[in-house]
Design brief:
Elements (H helix, E strand, L loop, with lengths): L14 E5 L2 E4 L4 E4 L2 H4 L8 H13 L10 H13 L5 E7 L2 H16 L3 E5 L8 H5 L4 H4 L10 E3 L4 H6 L5 E6 L13 H13 L3 E5 L13 H5 L5 E4 L10 E6 H5 L14 H16 L2 H15 L7 E5 L2 E5 L4 H10 L2 E2 L8 E4 L7 H13 L3
Parallel strand pairs: 3-13, 5-6, 5-7, 7-8, 8-9
Antiparallel strand pairs: 1-2, 2-3, 4-10, 9-10, 11-12, 12-14
Helix pairs in contact: 2-11, 3-11
The structure holds pyridoxal-5'-phosphate.
Length: 377
């Protein structure tokens, strides 16, 4: 029995190192990483500015909890709020993962509204802690805990009539994954998101955007909230926020941030200086290298260049894309792997996912285009 529990179907190689959009296996094989280390490597693997910032911070102060004020934490919080100006963000609490970021948002909504109802959408995926699990539509991970999960109401994603008809007045929070990644890059219209915002605001209930995949400029603007023209009560961020250093963030609107009391939330490691330095460097690289624009340009190119015999359509936005295949997507995934390209599967058997670093290179794009058009089925 291996010492490390096998809880995940891993790529069939041992990974040694990564650089930009490439990773190298121990046997020397190089792969283009269109999977982005699980949608995490926003600035690419081991970006030199990230490595330098992390090394400098590690040499200065590796850790102190929220019990001490840290300049790097305060600067990082301000930089994140400035970056999120387009969606009305005003205050942030830092934790260590996406599930925690959602859990904290849901807890605050329950506390501040004094209500207990939670609403989520079919196909949404929000994490493995209890409240996050209760709003996640993935029976294989929720069923064993069905007896103890807090009840939540599930509505059809993108369905305007459901949003019009549902009574949100007993609801503490509605949580939505703006592009449903795991369930196959499912999208909804801007009009639907805007109406959802109007209905939840009128009922005094929180709207939480789970931007753990869609945030950090992946959609070509800072957040999905900005993309769809919505100001949520809370935005959850994680994954690409610090380019691979573990981090989570619950970002609140001014009204919700103003109601947070000392002791409402806590985390030993959340907001640690290493993660803060990595997040600051990530925000600077995204701005300096104009990675939001790069995400838009690459998406536009792939939407035109990939369709053909192997790929029916390219779905999604920015660099959170799905390749819809005419038959089972697994055969195309195997072919791309043989051509040294890593991509993601999804809950939809005819959709593969692309979520590379935002600075994905021309060489990686050409390799993907060539391999897709070589596929004979
Ligand atoms: C949309 C979304 N929300 C939440 C999570 C949970 O994040 P974490 O694994 O960091 O807890 C994930 C992870 O895949 C995710 O994709």
């Amino acid at each position: 029995m291996p010492a490390l529990l096998e809880t995940y179907a891993a790529f069939p190689f041992v990974l040694d190192r990564g650089s930009g959009d490439r990773v190298h296996a121990e046997d020397g094989t190089e792969y283009f990483d269109w999977y982005g280390g699980h949608c995490v490597t926003s600035t690419g693997h081991s970006h030199p500015r990230l490595v330098a910032a992390i090394a400098e911070q590690a040499g200065k102060l590796l850790f102190y909890s929220a019990a001490a004020r840290l300049r790097v934490r305060e600067q990082a919080a301000q930089a994140l709020i400035d970056y999120l100006a387009g969606c009305g963000a005003a205050g942030v609490f830092f934790c260590n993962s996406g599930a925690e970021a959602n859990e904290n948002a849901l807890k605050l909504a329950i506390k501040q509204t004094g209500r207990t109802g939670l609403v989520s959408f079919d196909g949404g995926w929000h994490g493995r802690t209890l409240l996050a699990l209760s709003v996640t539509d993935d029976p294989k991970i929720t069923e064993p805990y069905a007896g103890i999960l807090p009840p939540s109401q599930r509505l059809p994603f993108g369905d305007l009539a459901a949003v019009e008809q549902f009574d949100f007045t007993k609801t503490a929070a509605v949580i939505v994954e703006p592009i449903q990644s795991m369930s196959g890059i499912r999208t909804a219209s801007a009009a639907w998101f805007q109406r959802l915002r109007e209905r939840t605001a009128a009922a005094g209930c929180w709207l939480i955007f789970d931007e753990i995949q869609t945030g950090m400029s992946r959609m070509g603007v800072a957040t999905a909230a900005e993309f769809y023209g919505v100001q949520p009560d809370a935005i959850s961020l994680a994954k690409g926020l610090a380019s691979g250093v573990p981090i989570g963030a619950t970002v609140l609107s001014a009204e919700r941030a103003a109601a947070v009391k000392s002791g409402d939330l806590g985390s030993t490691f959340g907001g640690g200086p290493l993660a803060m330095a990595a997040m600051l460097a990530t925000l600077r690289v995204i701005a300096d290298e104009q990675l939001a624009r790069r995400a838009r340009e690459v998406a536009e190119r792939l939407r035109a260049s990939l369709p053909g015999a192997a790929v029916q359509t390219v779905i999604g936005e920015g660099l959170l894309l799905g390749l819809r295949t005419p038959g089972p997507a697994a055969a195309l995934k195997r072919h791309l792997f043989e051509r040294r390209l890593l991509v993601g599967a999804s809950g939809d058997p005819s959709v593969l996912r692309l979520m590379p670093c935002l600075n994905v290179s021309e060489a990686a794009i050409v390799a993907l285009e060539t391999a897709v058009h070589e596929f004979k089925g």
